[in-house]
């Protein structure tokens, strides 16, 4: 029963997550050895309730791309987000699970980068 250590990033970004790209502000976090997670972040805000609540730690598998419907950690114009990814004929949008937040469209001129997929 060995575990592995992954970084838990401390810096919460607005409505989302701490980006591994934003610095070395993390502590070691222990997960099961067979976990898919490459890093962990704490959710900030209520935009992903009821599934994820403010302050909850989520585990993330590093990825550059994701499928329609995946919960992703991403940056959009240097803002970090944890959102459900919607890809369709209208393009890409970031969807909050909390219905009081409108979808965030990703436009062609935006700087958009996926950091990973939430796996737990």
Give a description of the structure:
- The chain is mainly β and 120 residues long.
- The protein is 0% helix and 46% strand.
- It has a 9-stranded mixed β-sheet, with no helix packed on it.
- The chain is globular, with a radius of gyration of 14 Å.
In short:
With 120 residues, the protein is mostly beta strands. The protein has strands at 3-9, 26-32, 39-42, 57-62, 71-76, 79-88, 91-95, 104-106, 112-118.
Compile the SSE list and pairings:
Layout lengths: L2 E7 L16 E7 L6 E4 L14 E6 L8 E6 L2 E10 L2 E5 L8 E3 L5 E7 L2
Strand order of the largest sheet: 2-1-3-4-9-5-6-7-8
Q: What's the mean pLDDT score?
A: 87
Helix content: under 10%
Hey, roughly how much beta strand do the residues contain?
over 45%
Number of helical regions: 0
Shape: globular
Structural class: mainly beta
Keywords:
mainly beta, 9 strands, 9-stranded mixed β-sheet, 120 residues
